[in-house]
Amino acid sequence: MNNNDFAKFIDEIRESRKMSREELVDGILSIRQYFRFIKGESSLKNQTISELLERLEIADVVSYEYFKRRNDDNFVKLKEIYQYVFKNDLKTANKMISDFDESTLELSSNKKFFSFIKEYLGQQQELWSYETAVQRVLDLIEYPDVLDKQVHSFVEKTALVYATNYLLKQKDFRISTYYYNLVKKEIDTKTHDEEYRIAFRVMAAKSLGYIQEFNKALYILKDTEQQFFKGIEFMPMITLYYYKALVERDMYDDETYKRSLRKMYCLINLLDDRTQTEKIEQSVERLFNIKEVELIQFK
Questions:
Q1: CATH, residue 128
Q2: To bridge 257 with a disulfide, which of 151, 224, 248, 283 should be the other Cys (CB 3.0-4.6 Å)?
Q3: Do both 77 and 222 map to the same domain?
Q4: CA 226 – CA 219 distance, rounded (Å)
């Protein structure tokens, strides 16, 4: 990984956003400077790179982490191990971490990621307690100084999410302010790390609830709900469960089809406007002789 790779990466983002080079650099630097930058003949100041990324409407840390995911093999491997730990597939995670050659790690961020995964895995394997693991992880990311940073790496965000429950129980509510300021900045600038948007915002709302900042918590949750549902098409899945229930009703003598109908109504109830599902709901009542309220289970 080198500066020229990152310069080419920025230019790839420009192309993907259908923006000309002239549009990207206008008022920031000359087109000649930009060409020299992407050819690797010169470097740019951090402020200039930040201005280019802002014009591309992506945050510095988001773009760099995405760049790492594409170009850093060690980061990709570590991310895969982390996902296995997260999914509680400890056997696979343990095998992968044992086979991983730690001597290949050169970047400090990857070394921290490796150490964090070992702590997380050890805690999941009950080799040590969650409290012990959290203390080590907080030392690893230099808490609380890490909260003063303007941008945070994937590892720092992951570690803070991991430690949040512990910090809240210790009544360390600095994490609440940190989450709110970070998420509010994302909302105001319309930038976010796609991978961590929901997890981070849920933790932000939870931590704000601890200090009874309910208006701030609701503000974050409403915006997250709006952004999350904005790009989702529910109708295809609603239709899928409807026809799945029809097939199950004709194939089986039991009430298997009701599970599909419950899933269908769960999706329908996520819609603000149910007019588009009226025909399906009417068909359910006619063909299954059942109403939504009759599918509710109390346990």
A1: 1.25.40
A2: 248
A3: yes
A4: 11
